Amino acid sequence: MSDLKPIAPAEAKAQYLEAIRTEKAESTVQTREYQLRHFVRWCGEEDIENMNTLDGRDLMNYRKWRREDGDLNNVTLRSQMSNIRHFIDFCGRIDAVPSNLHEKVLLPSLDKYENRRDESLSAERARSILDFLERFEYASRDHVAFLVLWKTGMRTGGLRALDVEDYYPRKGALELVHRPDTGTPLKNKEAGERMIALGDAECEVIDDYLERKRENATDEHGRDPLITTKNGRMGKVTIRRTAYRLTRPCIYAGECPHDKDPMDCEARTDYDKASQCPDAVSAHPIRRGSITHHLDNDVPKVAVSDRMDVSPDVIDAHYDAASKEGKMNRRREYVEDI
């Protein structure tokens, strides 16, 4: 204890956030800041004014308090306590707490499947949506946005980061570039930069969009976004709403599986309420479905990992939505002749 330097919880939080700002995406920093607000609030309620006094029992009490205060499930609590462990580890490095105190941050154990995100867009539904767009909204903004999300499996942040100059029609490729200074960071920063191959059919749609349908607009930094609105670059909220709208069965299939009258369904008549449709999904399930579709079509996991900027372990844990039978069938060709 004698080697520790006194520091208030709020000051330790501020130093931690400043330290990670150079290595984490701004959205990650904001998430950590929000979560640490609760820790600082708890310290205030417990009259903990100096980080030096924290011990393992305090951290156990915080975990119990946070679960009850936030009504958190195991998955969310584990995520938040993992961030607390990272914070306490940092505090140990600046002599605010004992150097091994972070090891006493206990994470809730999870059931094998508890941390999976099961919502996924199937390849069949994606094909139906693309058929609808090709027939009725060919080379529109929505068509290009959905086509790129599905064919490349990129994140929404990657989609909105694309500029016209990042499209290479002769090479049949899109390039993702980390440009945090002009408002389009990539989740994994420079490590997420990559070239993504496109097929001839996808290039034809993008070419026609650029020639006939793209709004001639620049963003606030003077850049030329690939996908534009009247106000400039397509925002994350617009992308999310587009995903919800296009994945409603009444749009691409012309019928409601829940037997609702389209005239009386707010999810059908009000675009802002499209997310209320039980079958509508946001952009992330599109990414998950795309990753699964690539794997189902025998694309090697390492290639999917590079194309989608996600590690093989994370693919296994969170993104591969195939059933047990589907995964068996993928392996079949490798063992049939043994």
In short:
The protein has helices at 9-20, 26-45, 56-70, 74-93, 123-136, 141-152, 156-161, 200-213, 236-246, 249-252, 266-269, 283-296, 301-308, 312-319, 324-335; strands at 167-168, 173-176, 194-197, 228-229, 232-233. It is mainly α and 338 residues long. The chain has 2 domains: 9-104, Tyrosine recombinase, N-terminal domain (DNA polymerase, domain 1), CATH 1.10.150.130; 123-286, Intergrase catalytic core (hpI Integrase, Chain A), CATH 1.10.443.10.
Structure description:
By secondary structure, the chain is mainly alpha-helical. It folds into two domains: 9-104, DNA polymerase, domain 1 (Orthogonal Bundle), CATH 1.10.150; 123-286, hpI Integrase, Chain A, CATH 1.10.443.10. The protein is 51% helix and 4% strand. It has 15 helices and five strands. The protein has helices at residues 9-20, 26-45, 56-70, 74-93, 123-136, 141-152, 156-161, 200-213, 236-246, 249-252, 266-269, 283-296, 301-308, 312-319, 324-335, and strands at 167-168, 173-176, 194-197, 228-229, 232-233. A three-stranded antiparallel β-sheet has the order 1-2-3, with no helix packed on it. Strands 4-5 form a two-stranded antiparallel sheet. A hairpin with a 4-residue loop joins strand 1 (167-168) and strand 2. Helix 6 packs antiparallel against helix 8 (200-213) and helix 6 crosses helix 12. The longest helix is centred in the first third of the chain and has 20 residues, at 26-45. Mean pLDDT is 88; it is low at 112-117. Residues 116-332 form the Tyr recombinase domain. It holds the Pfam family Phage_integrase. GO terms for molecular function: DNA binding. Keywords: DNA integration, DNA recombination, DNA-binding. It comes from Halobacterium litoreum.
